[in-house]
Structure formats: C-alpha cells, structure tokens
Amino acid sequence: MSNTNTTQERELGAAGEQLSTAPREESAGTVPAMGVIGWARWFWRQLTSMRVALILLFLLSLGAIPGSLIPQNSVDELKVQDFQKAHTTLTPVYEKLQLFDVYSSVWFSAIYILLFVSLIGCIVPRTFQFVGQLRSLPPAAPKRLTRLPAYTTWRTDADPEQVREAAAGILGRRRFRSHTVGDAVAAEKGYLRETGNLMFHIALIVMLVAFAAGQLFKSEGGKLIVEGDGFSNTLTQYDDFKSGSMYDTDSLAPFSFTLDDFVGTYEKSGPQRGTPRTFEARVTYAEGVDGKPKKSVIRVNEPLVVDGTKVYLISHGYAPVVSVKDGKGKEVYRTAVPLLPIDNNITSTGAIKVMDGYRDRNGEKTQLGFEAFFVPTFAGAGKGTMFSQFPGAEFPVLALNGYHGSLGVDSGLPQNVYQLDSSEMTEFKDTSGQKLKKRLLPGETMELPDGAGSITFESVEEWASFQVSEQPGTGWALGGSIAAIAGLAGSLFIQRRRVWVRAVRGTDGVTVVEMAGLGRSESAKLPEELADLAVELNSAAPTAPDAVNDPEMDSGAGPDPDPDVPSEEPAEGAEK
Asked: How many CB atoms lie within 10 A of CB 373?
C-alpha cells in the first residue's frame, strides 16, 4: 500500500477504513522473517495476492492455446496420429511437453490447482471480514469533514436534532444504512459492490470445480449407424469410447435407439449450392430395458437427452448396399458398407471386405477385398478419378477394384475398417491383363474373372455418426458463468460510499450543517449524489436568512486548512 494511502487512513481514522475487504499488498522490499514459518507465511501471502492470481489466470489462458491448436488424444486420436506422421521432428518435443494431452498434463494441472488454492485463500478471510462489516454500523464522522473529497455546508435556523432526524430519514429513503453517532449521522451504501466481488470469485471456484468434475467423471463415445440399424448404450456397442479417470462404466444410462431415417437436403442453385438446409436424424428410442418406444428427431446442436446422457448428431455419409456371389451363383455377402467422405460434396472412399462364406472356383475358402470410391452425384470422369458435383445422391456411382487372398484379419492385429490391407492379396485382372476395375450404377454388376463370382451395386443407404456423451457439471459451469458475469458487473458499476451529516449549534445560536462523502475510489457521481442529498435536506432545513449573502457559506468543496496534505481518498487495497 502506498505511503499516501497510509497517511490518509491514519488521518481519517475509522472513517476511511474497511471500504474494501481486499488484502493488503506487502511492499516489494519486504524481507520475510527467517525460518520455515516465516517463509511459509510469505509464500502464502504471495499466492493469495492479486498479482499472483492474475499471473496464474494468464498462464491458464496461455496453456489453453496449444490445447486448441494441437490435436488432443482426448478428442481425436486419429488426428493426433496424422499430425505425428506429418511432423516427425516436432512430435518428440510435443510428447515431452505433454502437448497432445494438455488438459491432463502435469503443468496444466499445477496451474489449475494453484489458481484454485489462491482463490480459496483469498475468499475465505474476505468473506469473514465482509460479514463482520455487514454486522457493524457505519463509523463515526471524522473531526474535519472538510478533508473529504465531497463536502458542502450551510447555516440553518432548524435545531440540530431536527436536522439530524431529517437527514436520517432522507438517507433511509435512499437505502443508506444510517445511525446517529454524537453530533452527526453516519450512513453507508454500496455493499453490493463487495458482494459482487466475492460472488465473482466464488463463481470462478464453482466453474473450476465443475470443469474438474466434468473431466474426471465424463464419458464420451462415438457410433456410426446405417439407416435401419440400432444402438444400445453398452460399452461393446461403441466404435470408440473414452471416459474420465473416475468414471464407472457400469453406470452407463440404459437406453437404446434405432436410426429410422436420415434426412439431408441441400441448396440446389445459386452461390450457396450444396449448402445443407435440412440435416436431421429421425430415431426411435426407448429408456431402460422395457421402455416404451418414442419418436424423436436429432439435429445439429439439438441432441437427444436420455437420463442425463446426450446423443449428438455429428456427421453423415453414404453406405452403398452391395451383394457378392461366388462362382456357383450363391450369395455370400449382402450389406450396406459405410464409406468416409473426403470433401464437402461427400465424395467417399472405403473398403468392402468379404471375410467368410466365399469359395473360389476350386471350392477353396478365401477372402475378397474391394477398394471402393463413391460419388453421390457423378459429374464426369476427371484425370484418373471421379468427382462429385453435389452432396445429394442424385446420380450415384460406385467405382470398384478387387483383390482375393488373405485380408489379414486373422492375425489378431487391429485394422482400420475403411482401409484395405492388400499386402497378402492378389489383384483381379481383366481379359487384357490389366487391373480389374469398373464404375457401377445402382443395379449394375461387375463380373469377377475366371468364374470367381460377381459383385453388384444394389442401392444406396445413408449413415449418421453420433456422439454419446455424459458430462456432469455443465449446469454448474453455466450457473457459475452467469454468476461471475453478474458479480463482475456489480463490482465494476456499484460504488461503496459513506456520507456524514453533522449538525451543531454555533456560538451565535444558528445551526451549522456539514455534509461530506467518501467513496472507495474517485468518482464524479459521489459529488452529484451528495449535492442531491444536500438539496433535499436543505428543503427540510433551509439556509438561514443572514447567511444567504455570506460568500464563505456557499455550497462546494470546503477549504483545506493544510495545503501540504493531499486531498483525502479511501484506502485502495489490492483487490482480486
């Protein structure tokens, strides 16, 4: 705290104290007492200071930047793997700095915990101090009201008791807490400023706790579903699943749903051609094991909510329905195969794998694999590949080329279902010895050479990808955010101030009225408010006739008998 403020507190006494519950900052040159206790006390005061809290908040903000720019394992492991393959030099550095797991890293957790402790260490003592201020009455008036930043005086024929009674009534109507102390009425207003300040800090703690709870107890899984297929909320049904370290997988909410239909419509003309207009999944869901089926529609940012679990619609694509027959004409495979989009017009790629049931022309069991390339609206053949000109399935074409042999699925190693491992397979060749490949319209068939069978493009289904998430604490986080904004607004726009009205009888028998105000910080509103109070009180205790023309009794800032002492301002404590 500056020497000026210290001098002001000493000269104003109790009148200038406790306008804030902010802890006092120690001067930079303060040397802590030697010994463990002294150093511990010094460290605690530094940790709970405004300066350190701001530094921690700044570091937390900086720490969130790499978590937003660099792919995170907790969000998408495939993106992390792609990033690592593309940046082989940076990857070891990022791994050592835990930049692929920012929000669970040691350094981010340390900043988070220190900020939490800092806020707790500040709020607890300030709360007790503020409660004590609420239970106490405003302090008595200083001896020299002329030193306060806002001051006015006049003389009146009214009795001092009448003036003080009128002042107390006016201040009460203006929602000041007031009482009479000796020859003056002491009043105070603006307690909501400190209430807002404390509410802001408490709301920050609530948000931190909610964020921590959300990370520890959350669950999040993904599921791709083709039209007509369903999903049951059990661990084995997920394509991928992640959860917090304290989440119990046995607590998954029991529900199921079926994707009845996916509806996607797109702008067909103009500069917005291809822009989605309708993007919704129509589902039938049931709560519990024996729940009654209900209809619902899931849209982007409009999830299905079941027992606290939210089902979000994430993405959409096409699943060509294909059938495969062996050399004897027996159908051994028929299914809708989801393909992954690679552009905004949903040009898609994937793999068709026939693992069981197929026999070659010699009756030997083998496996088939087809690389698939699909366009929903064929726009013509480009150089070496097809491309789509519209995301809607208006002219679907499926391009295939096939292999036979071993798919490698029996090795026990995990495989990407959308990629074909042809390392142990042989390409089918056409009659000219070239790679067998063909573009198919719905209903068309590609014959495999040497009587190996055929594959038919039957029709097109659509699929939708869903994210099923359970994240406790989101309601608390939202409530904390709203409370933090409200508290911050209160602490910024509400001014804590005190007003004193002194009325004493002069030596000539005329009552001298003095009014002065003190705010926690300089504000143009304080003199204006004091002037309004003075005008209202003057109507109840009008200026004495013999003082109307006295130039020394004009309303305004009182004279300062000691020009060497700076004008009085309230003590400015360090505020968090």
From this structure: 19
Contacts of 160 (CB under 8 A, 6+ apart): 183, 503, 504, 505, 511
Residues (pLDDT < 70) of the chain are: 1-34, 381-385, 411-414, 521-523, 546-576
> Is residue 453 classed as helix, strand or coil in its secondary structure?
strand
Domain that holds residue 169: 137-189+495-540
64, β-bridge pairs? none
pLDDT digits (tens, 9 = 90+) for 96-150: 999 999 988 999 989 988 988 988 888 888 888 888 888 888 999 999 999 998 9
The whole-number pLDDT of residue 150 equals 92
Q: Report the SS3 class of residue 49.
A: coil
Question: What proportions of the chain, in percent to the nearest 5, are helix, strand and coil?
Answer: 35, 30, 35
Say whether both 456 and 511 belong to one domain. no
pLDDT at 171: 95
Clarify whether residues 240 and 283 are in a common domain.
yes
Residues 453 and 326 in one domain: yes
State the Cα angle at 286 between 284 and 290, rounded to 5°. Answer: 140
Cβ burial, residue 385 (10 Å; 0-12/13-18/19+) = exposed
Let me know if residue 194 belongs to a domain. no
Give how far the C-alpha of residue 493 lies from the chain's centroid of Cα atoms, to the nearest Å: 25
Asked whether residue 436 falls in the same domain as residue 531, the answer is: no
Q: 485 in a domain, yes or no? A: no
Residue 520 in contact with residue 19, Cβ under 8 Å? Answer: yes
Residue 574 is assigned to a structural domain of this protein? no
CA distance 45 to 383: 70
Examine the domain organization and report whether 116 and 230 are in the same domain: no
CA–CA dist 377, 348 (Å, integer)? 11
Q: How far apart are CA 109 and CA 60, in angstroms?
A: 10
Do 434 and 293 lie in one domain? The reply is yes
How many domains does the structure of the chain reveal? 3
Distance CA(258)–CA(147), nearest Å, equals 78
In terms of Cα–Cα distance, which of 301, 299, 295 is closest to 316? 299
Q: Cβ distance 418 to 339 under 8 Å?
A: yes
- pLDDT of the residue at 3: 45
Say what the pLDDT of residue 201 is.
Answer: 87
Provide the CATH number for the domain around residue 144.
3.30.310.80
pLDDT of residue 78: 72
Buried b or exposed e, range 75-90, using 16+ CB within 10 angstroms: eeeeebeebbeeeeee
Does one domain contain both 388 and 508?
no
> In this structure, are 252 and 300 located in the same domain?
yes
Q: Which residue among 437, 470, 503 closes a domain?
A: 470
376 and 396 Cβ atoms separated by less than 8 Å: yes
- Token pair 């010895």 is at which residue? 433
Please answer whether residues 459 and 444 qualify as being in contact, where contact means their C-beta atoms are separated by less than 8 angstroms: no
From the list 564, 571, 479, the residue with the least C-alpha distance to 205 is 479
Per-residue pLDDT of 4-35, as tens digits, reads: 444 444 555 556 655 655 555 555 455 555 67
Predicted TM-score of the model (pTM): 0.67
> Do the domain assignments include residue 195?
no
Tokens at 322, concatenated: 């294909």
Residue in 265, 300, 280, 276 with CA at minimum distance from that of residue 393:
265
